[in-house]
Each structure stands twice: as structure tokens, then as C-alpha cells.
Amino acid sequence: MFSFVLKRTAAAVPVMAMVAIIVFALLRLTPGDPAAIIAGDSATPERLEEIRALMGLDQPILVQLYVWISQLLQGDFGTSLLSGVPVTQMIGQRIGPSLALCLTTITVSVLVAIPLGVLAAWRQGKLLDRFVMSISVLGFSVPVFVSGYLLILFFSLQLRWFPVQGYQPLSAGLWPFLNSLVLPTVALSSVYIALIARITRTSVIEVMNEDFIRTARAKGLGERGVLMGHALGNAAVPIITIIGVGIALLISGVVVTESVFNLPGLGRLVVEAVLARDYPVIQALILLFAFIYILINLVVDVLYTVFDPRIRQ
Amino acid sequence: MNQTESSADAARSAQQPVLTIDKLSVALVGEHGPGRPVVKSLSFDVKAGETVCIVGESGSGKSVTSLAVMGLLPKDSLTPTGGRILLEGENLLEASQRRLRDLRTTGMAMVFQEPMTALNPVQRVGEQVDEVLRLHTKLGREERRKRVIAMLESVHLPDVERIYRSYPHELSGGQRQRIVIAMALILKPRLLIADEPTTALDVTTQKQILALIKELQTEQGTAVIFITHDFGVVAEIADRIVVMNQGSVVETGTRDEILAHPKQDYTRMLVSSVPSLIPHHRTQPTGETVLTVKALTKYYGSSKSWFGGATASGTPAAQDVDLILRRGEVVGVVGESGSGKSTVARCVMRLIDPNSGEINLNGTDIATMGRGALMPMRKRIQIVFQDPYRSLNPRRRVGESIIEGLLNYNVSRAEAESKARHALKTVGLPEDVYDRYPHQFSGGQRQRICIARALVMEPDVLVADEAVSALDVSVQAQVLALLDEVRERVGVGVLFITHDLRVAAQICDTIIVMQRGRIVEQGTAVEVLTKPRESYTRALIEAAPGRHWDFQHFRAVA
């Protein structure tokens, strides 16, 4: 197991390097003077020179790459052109809400979707199954920016149960913190609940036709034991795959959701940085997201081997 | 248990059968109530220590019967419509689901056909056996573990501590079947139903599993229902036989009554279709040689090294295989799974590339030929696969499948069509088959279609890879007769790959015995089967079930 993780981690290094080089090239290869792009339309020539020197643009390109990568390795992601604050510090300030939203969304999705999927599989073709599956079609057909505003309209404006927008950090107390996350989590997780529930249903139904399910029944095991003890474990691999894909997709979901609910997270930071052409921030965020993708893939691969001994070799 | 008790037990079991099936009917579930019956008014009983074999061809209702006894009929497709199933006097058809669950493995247990898929692939096998004890006993963890280990020992598994912790994919087919048997018999049920438990196993493994079931049956006094299509197995183990056809009992009787003096025509037909192990004396074909294989070697998993040469690593699947095939000759390649017989067939077809050796087809070495050069050679050698249900494209009309090969070789559509119709006639199918779809045909008919598809190319060599293994015996006999006729009429050389010595005895002129990738013995069918020189060949022949019985002539072999 350990050597497997080590091997996969090592394999991730060249991928990260490729991402870093592409991010580096993104800015350098855009037509025109990067300094001019960064400085914006109203910059004075002195300001341009200043930026060029700051970015080392007067150096040969390979030297620039070397300098940039070695800075990255030292944890120096540059400073925001807009605010002059180090990028790492900005990300540190904004990662809290996003992390919280992702964690609540994925927890809620998995906890709701898997039982729903198993239930639907168990009652295949019956009323319950059809009900769950119709709801799930609705779940992933309605985009977050529609369901989000509907939730706000009903639960915040009419019933006044939850705040309309905004975020309370954990330091403000557990209750306000969770309260501010309820609606964004519900809006965002509906898509993933639908997705994971459908895949769970399909894979459990497939497994229920296998011979070893008949063997389990022949042992005198009841339906619940068959489902939980034998079917679910064998259906795990496709379910884990889709959860992994879901988490990866979550990043783009977070961008929209944070805008709708006005949460000061990374998603909003992306939007702000793009609108302001704050290149160092954009670069750092791309690197961060790529890193998260790779990490999730690694975790998914390790989980495969936990659930299916046949993949362990 | 003291003496009086056990004799009382014996007396009781002599009076009352363990299982009585009384006028059982099972039907398909239709839209409104029961639909077409699949088991019709079936009655028989099984006594303690007795083995009753249910034999019949596919669709006879034998497996449905066993599932009905276990209460495991798929609810939404099959339902019992009448009769009683009495397990020691208790009617199982009236028992609650809860009661049925309690009885499984304690009163009645089942062993299934496919040991490869009957076990949960993601759970350790020890835990799977343990689950039976967890469900039905109140024993503690340590006590259960001891019982499971003891049971694994009594099914003669080696290194039981390691096996306990193994996953199914780490065990061989025979070992897995032992696990399934351990699971079924650990609580000493009164009744064991074995549904084709050895069909997927090699003959030598089959022999061991049959012996194991017999041993445990004698120890525990279990009543055994043994479902099989293999009369060889029946001849070995049956006390009594129930012959089924299309859901009804055709005939029941003791083993000798059924095998030696069958009363019903159907039974006579079925028993006499069983191929005999005694080879026909045939004149050795003297036609010109069409295929010569020399020193053929194939490694699996050997990656090409960086400099182009094959590395020596990898598992040898075939090593130094030599064979000669003449026009009009049937050369049988026999062996157990993993012996390399299919590897040889695939290399000869150039479906896979051999690592070294020569494959000489009509004077041209095709072993190392490139794709382009190989193209005109491919039509000279055709194959018929094992499973006729999967080797025809279900979305294509039969005719389209047959002419596809010809069209690839630029034969005009009209000419291809007339050849296809002719080929269908050769394999004994009516001409209208051409425009129908594969699902409209039975297994035997589909295999005829596959043979027609191969013959239409007018090949010099026909490779039959377990071509009759998936068929019922009566159909098997017909397809074998067809192959023999085709060989004689068309003069094609047939490379016949099979694990079944009986089949080989019926059709082969020459037999090649393979073991672990090497040829251990080859000679005429008569020599190899009646005067085997090698101990492995002898072991194979001895493991063939029912070899002391001449089914065609309804008599035991002296």
C-alpha cells in the first residue's frame, strides 16, 4: 500500500510540473508585452519598466522560468497586482468558506445519495424507485443559480429561517457558521445527490444479478444483509469513481454558488482576479486547483484498492 | 449420541425421506397471474444418505426445481403454482420467508455451478464461511473461527490459515468450489442440492470434488440432489436418477434401470447420445498436408525489450509444439484448462503472435507474416468458437454474418449470397434462415450457422475451439456428426480443441495431449485412448467420469 501511494505521488510530480510550465507560458506567450497586460491600459512608461524589472522580464525566458519555479518551490507565489498583498496570504484568507462549503456539500451528498440509491435499487421498478429517480432528474437539470435563488426566495425572504447571503466564520460560533452554509450546501449538493444516487442504484442493481448474491441468499441472509453486506461493497468502485469526479467538478460549482450566496471564498476570488486581470492570483489559483485535482485522483485510486482486493496487485 | 438414539434415527430415516417433492408445479409470472408452466407436477423423494441425480437438457426445469426447494425462485419471474415440497415433513411452500432463511444451510444447502462467480470477490473466503455461523448460531468469534478452520480442513484445503485470509481470486476453481462446499455443509444440513457443481471444472478436479461430496455425505448422512447434464457423472455417483424433459419427469429409477434398461424413448435417446470413450477405428487419412506447426512457442506477459527482442520473462503458454494436419483429417488437441490448447489454436489462427516457431499453411510460413501479407492467408483458415450465443452479432441477420467474410475478399454480393445459401444447406439448415436473426435459433442451430460461416470461405483448415462444449448431449452428437460429414465431403482439415476426451474419441483421427504448455503425448486416437504411454494421459482418462459405462449400448464396460 505504502509503495503504491509513493509511486502514485511520484507520478504526480511531472503532471504538476507540466501545469506549472503551462501557467508560466500562459502569461509569457500572450501576444504583446506581459507587463503592459499586467499594468493595464492607463499605466505610465515608468510603471511598465518597474513591472518588467519586478517580473524579471528583461531576462532570457529560461532564466525567467527557473526563477519562477524556484520561487514557487519556496512557497512564494508573488503578490497581487491589485492589492499588493502576497497571493498565499490572500488564498489563506479566502480558503475557509470554500473548504467549508465543499466539505458540507460532499458529506451531505454522500450521506443522502447512497442510501437513496440503495433504496431505489432494492425497490427497482416500484413506486419508491420511480419517485427517487424522477427527483434526481430534477436534481441535475436545475442549475445552481436557479435553485439557489429559489431557495433564498423561499427560506430566507419568506420564512426567514436562514440569512439571505454572506458567511460567518467558525470563530463566530458553530451555529451561525452552519446556518450560513445551509442554503449554499443544499443548492450545490442537489446536483451531486442526483448524480451519486443514480450511479449507486445502477451499480447495486448490476451487482444484485451476480451469482454470489444468490449464494448469500442461499446462506439464509435476509435482503438487508444481502444489500449492505454483499451488494454495496461490490458496487463501491463505480460509486467512488463518481464521488471523485463529483469533488473535482465541485470546484466549478463553488465558483457559481459563492457568487449566488455572496460567500467570500476562493470561487469569488477567481471571479475577482479574472475581472481585474490579477495574473499572479490567477496563476496561483490554477496551480492550487490542479493540485487538488491530482490529490483527489490519488485518494480515489487508493480507495479502489481498499474496496477491491483484486486491484491491489 | 448413544446407540439407541442412533438406531432410532436410522429407523426413522428409513421410513421418512428427507425430501419429498409432491406434484410440484412452477410457472412463469405473467401479467395476470401465472403464465407458462416450466415445471409440471413433479414428484420424487430423497432419503438420507442417498444421491438422486436429476438429469435433463437445458430448459428441462432441473435448476428451477432446485431453486424452488431452496425458496430462491426469482420472485418477479417464477412462482410455484401447486404441489408440496416437504423437508422432513415440513411444507416449504407454506413456510414463511423467515423460516426459509433459518432453514437455509441448517436444513438444506446448495452448491452452485460456477465457483468462479459464486463467492463475493471483495470478501475474504474465511469470513464468507464464517457468515453462515454468524447467521445461524450464537457462537463466539473464537469458537466460530475454530469451526471454520476445522471445516476448511475437512474439505481438504491446504494451509487453511492462509486460505481463511485469501480472497476468491487468489484461489483456483477447485479450491473455490471446496469453499462453497464448506459453506454449504458446515452446519450439517439434512439435504444438499448440488447444481452442476463440477461442470466448470477440469476432469481431474471434478473427480476430487465428486469424491469430497461423497465423503462428507457418508460422514453426515446427507441426502443429496445432484443436478447435472453429464451422464458420465451420473454413472459414477447416482443411486437413483430422475430424467426430466420440458418440465416433466420422463422416467425415474435406479442408476442401472435408467442407464441399462431405459423404458422411455426420450431416455434412450439421451443416454445413447452420450459419446463413448472408446474410439472408432478409422482409416488414417493420407491426404496432402495442409498445416505444419514446428516448435511453436508463446509466452504471455513477455514484454518486448527496448531493443526489440523478446525478454525471457513471462509465462510460457505453449512451448515447442509440433503438429501436422492433413486434408480430411481431424486432429484433436486435448488438455485441462491452462494446458495451452487454446493458445495453440489462436497462434495458428494468428489471432495472437507466437514468440517463435513455424506455422506452415500450404507451404507458406505465416508465423511471422505481417498484416498485409497475412490478409490473403486468413481466408484459408477459419474458426468456430465455443459459445454460439456470443459468437454471432445479435443485430445482424444470419446471412449478413455469413457473407461478411466473402465481401471482405471482394466477392460480389450476389455470388456471396448464393455461396451462403449453399453453405446453410451443407450444415442442414433451411434456406430461410438467411434472413432471420440469431436469437431465433437454439444453441445447436447457432453452432451450425457458425460452421456455415466458416465453411463459406472454403478454408483448408477449420479450427474448432471447444465447438461442442456448450451444447446439450443430443445436440452435441448432431453437431459432431455434421463436422465429421463436412470433413469428408469438403476435405477440410480440422484442428479440434477440446477438454472432453469422450468428444475427442468420437471425432478425432489423431490426438495430441497437452499439459502446461507442452505436448506430453501424441498418436492416433486409438493408441492414445486405449494404450496411453504417459502417466498424465492415463490420469486424464481415469478421471473421465463414467468410463466404465458404454452408454450407446446401455451396458457396463467389463
From TrEMBL, chain A:
The chain crosses the membrane at residues 9-27, 98-119, 131-157, 177-197, 235-261, 281-307. Its main location: membrane. It is found in: Cell membrane. GO terms for biological process: transmembrane transport. The keyword tRNA-binding does not apply. Residues 95-304 form the ABC transmembrane type-1 domain. Keywords: Cell membrane, Membrane, Transmembrane, Transmembrane helix, Transport. One of its GO terms (cellular component) is plasma membrane. It is a multi-pass membrane protein. Belongs to the binding-protein-dependent transport system permease family. PANTHER family: DIPEPTIDE TRANSPORT SYSTEM PERMEASE PROTEIN DPPB-RELATED (PTHR43163), PEPTIDE ABC TRANSPORTER PERMEASE PROTEIN (PTHR43163:SF3). This is Peptide/nickel transport system permease protein.
From TrEMBL, chain B:
The keyword ATP-binding applies. Belongs to the ABC transporter superfamily. Residues 19-271, 291-541 form the ABC transporter domain. Its main location: membrane. GO terms for biological process: peptide transport; transmembrane transport. It comes from Pseudochelatococcus contaminans. One of its GO terms (molecular function) is ATP hydrolysis activity. One of its GO terms (cellular component) is plasma membrane. It is a peripheral membrane protein. PANTHER family: ATPASE AAA-TYPE CORE DOMAIN-CONTAINING PROTEIN, OLIGOPEPTIDE TRANSPORT ATP-BINDING PROTEIN APPD. It holds the Pfam family ABC_tran. It is found in: Cell inner membrane. This is Peptide/nickel transport system ATP-binding protein. The lineage of its organism: Bacteria, Pseudomonadati, Pseudomonadota, Alphaproteobacteria, Hyphomicrobiales. CDD domains: ABC_NikE_OppD_transporters (cd03257). SMART domains: AAA (SM00382). The keyword Nucleotide-binding applies.
